[in-house]
Specification:
The complex is a heterodimer of chains A (175) and B (156). Chain A has 175 residues and is mainly α. Chain A has one domain. Chain A is built from 7 helices and no strands. The longest helix of chain A has 29 residues. Chain A is elongated, with a radius of gyration of 19 Å. Chain A starts with 12 loop residues before the first helix and ends in an 8-residue tail after the last helix. Helix content of chain B is 82%, strand content 0%. The longest helix of chain B is centred in the middle third of the chain and has 29 residues. Chain B is elongated, with a radius of gyration of 18 Å. The chains are: A mainly alpha (175), B mainly alpha (156). Chains A and B meet through helix 3, helix 4 and helix 7 of A and helix 3, helix 4 and helix 7 of B.
């Protein structure tokens, strides 16, 4: 079913309509156990991914693990976070695949994707700039302002991703 | 004696009614519950992984556990503070939901384990690696069970 006033800026609507009617999509959507299991995996993997990211961000803000070198927190916790992120992406893609049209038309889903990109860019920028010189501030209990800014932005953006993801259950702003 | 009247009363409380009748209160509280979950999971994981010999291996277990203790206690408090109004708003549904009762059981077990055995094992000097690993596995298992059954309240 195509909502009457659905905006299709990306032009992907026909593709998602096709995807929604593939056998796999229907099977996940109608499954009794598989869908809840995928969704539970997606939610609980938050601990593995965002839990580790949040600890690193709090370290960058000088709020937690203040006497542990920043490079140690990043070096040891980011691999765990990446493993969590991989699970989030796989489970998230399966959830999207189970109902592409419902997700695509949802404003929260669109904002979530935008914030996901921004969070990624923030992390990339951090690693390409201030983190390159981490040796100079590795042991600082209170890191430089630019590192703090990256940590704060990361917390805000990833929290936004989680909030939008949860709010996707609601169709408040749909035509 | 049945707890059913108690849960009926829960649902009729001012907080339960307010959350149930509001369009946005339930989702907003749920979002905070989720964000606190990420932080609680992170603080539990970082210590349990360390006891398994992973993650922040250069930090002594006792020091690491002490460093994240406030964050763990704070996020657990946030989970309970947000979880209670969510439960009050649909108390009768929870009463009839098997996952809800599993969650409460695992929550009590995980919390008691954290403040008793896990705390002592993490603070012990000299530490026994085998005991630490065993403790970490039990802790991760219990908290996983809390989260897993929690999510399934929505399904059953």
């Amino acid at each position: 079913m195509r909502p009457a006033a659905m905006l299709d800026y990306s032009g992907l609507l026909p593709f998602f309509e096709w995807l929604e009617n593939t056998a796999g999509s229907v099977a996940i959507r109608e499954s009794i156990l598989f869908y809840p299991l995928v969704e539970t995996t997606h939610v609980l993997t938050l601990c593995l991914f965002l839990g580790m990211i949040a600890l690193l961000d709090l370290r960058l803000l000088g709020a937690a693990l203040r006497r542990v070198p920043v490079s140690e927190v990043a070096g040891r916790l980011l691999p765990v976070a990446f493993a969590g992120f991989a699970l989030m992406v796989v489970s998230g893609l399966l959830l999207f695949y189970s109902g592409p049209l419902r997700a695509y038309q949802n404003i929260f889903f669109r904002v979530k994707m935008a914030m996901l990109v921004l969070a990624g860019l923030n992390a990339l920028l951090f690693h390409l700039t201030i983190y390159k010189r981490v040796a100079a501030w590795d042991l600082d209990a209170s890191p430089p302002v630019r590192a703090k800014l990256a940590g704060a932005l990361s917390l805000v953006l990833w929290s936004g991703v989680v909030v939008c993801g949860r709010m996707q259950a609601y169709n408040w702003f749909e035509p | 004696m049945s707890l059913f009247p108690l849960f009926q009363w829960f649902e009729a409380t001012a907080v339960g009614t307010a959350v149930r009748e509001s369009l946005w209160l339930f989702p907003v509280i749920e979002c905070v519950h989720l964000l606190a979950l990420a932080l609680l999971g992170g603080t539990v994981l970082v210590v349990d992984l360390r006891m398994l010999g992973l993650g922040l291996r250069a930090q002594p277990v006792a020091e690491l556990a002490a460093k994240v203790h406030l964050w763990m206690a704070g996020s657990l408090a946030a989970m309970i503070l947000t979880g209670v109004p969510l439960m009050l708003s649909e108390a009768v549904k929870c009463y009839y939901s098997p996952p809800f009762w599993y969650k409460m059981g695992f929550l009590v077990a995980a919390s008691l384990f954290a403040v008793s055995i896990r705390r002592r094992v993490a603070a012990a000097e000299p530490a026994s690696p085998v005991l630490q690993k065993l403790t970490a596995v039990v802790s991760l298992g219990l908290w996983f069970a809390v989260g897993f059954s929690g999510r399934w309240i929505a399904f059953y």
